[in-house]
Amino acid sequence: MQAAGENQKEALEGTLITISDVLEYLFCPRFIFYMYCLDIPQHEENRFKVQKGREVHETRKLTNRDHTRKRLNCTRKESEVFIASSKNHIKGIVDEVLFLEDGTTAPLEYKFAEYKDKIFKTYKNQLILQALLIQENYNIEVNRGYICFTRSNNLVKEIEIKTSDFDKSLKIIQEILDVMHKGVYPKTTRSSRKCIDCCYRNICV
């Protein structure tokens, strides 16, 4: 008979969640339960901002490919990079992986948004997860990331990333895996305002 720990390890083998999964979990933990435990899709393709964001990405593939290199201390970059980590059970696409003059690397993410003197936690969490993947796959230190606000004349803001940020992200990933594999119905978000536009509001109790 296998021990509980061995059963859990076997269940997790091959499991890869996306960066989007983590961001949705942070929006409300029940997203994961509805998507993965009850297999109810959220139909994100109908959401305007998602569609527009994808258009921005497609446009960036065709134009201004070197603009960040000129504005940041970047020696080279890789675009639209898919990265996965079987060790940490996560995968995602990084808009740009920047290789900087000081020997470190950094993710850069384009946002179809205006900069309003604030960096949302969602943006920072996305960069941290991308940084986690870059650091493991390239084996190069990542201590910052960049957000490009396309509706503010492509303003680029730098965000510091610490080791403690990686630790928090790994803890969140483990929480998501527990929901997926143990089927535990998580608590809802603390902010009821988020429920107003939620695609699961009609079935969530």
What are the key terms here?
7 helices, 205 residues, 6 strands, six-stranded mixed β-sheet, alpha/beta, single chain, globular
Explain what this protein looks like in three dimensions.
This protein is an alpha/beta fold and about 200 residues long. The chain is built from seven helices and six strands. It has helices spanning about 5-10, 20-25, 30-35, 50-60, 65-70, 120-140, 165-180, and strands at about 15-20, 75-85, 90-100, 105-110, 145-150, 155-160. Strand 5 (about 145-150) and strand 6 form a beta hairpin.
Secondary structure blueprint with pairings:
Layout: H1 4-12, E1 17-18, H2 19-27, H3 30-37, H4 48-62, H5 67-71, E2 74-85, E3 90-100, E4 105-111, H6 121-138, E5 144-149, E6 155-160, H7 163-182
Helix pairs in contact: 2-6, 3-7
What does the overall shape look like?
globular
Give the structural class.
Answer: alpha/beta
Number of helices: 7
Q: What profile does the largest beta sheet have? A: 6 strands, mixed
Order of helices and strands: HEHHHHEEEHEEH
In the predicted model, the low-confidence regions spanning at least 5 consecutive residues are: none
Rg, Cα atoms, Å: 18 Å
Q: State the end-to-end CA separation.
A: 38 Å
Summarize the structure.
The protein is of the alpha/beta class and 205 residues long.
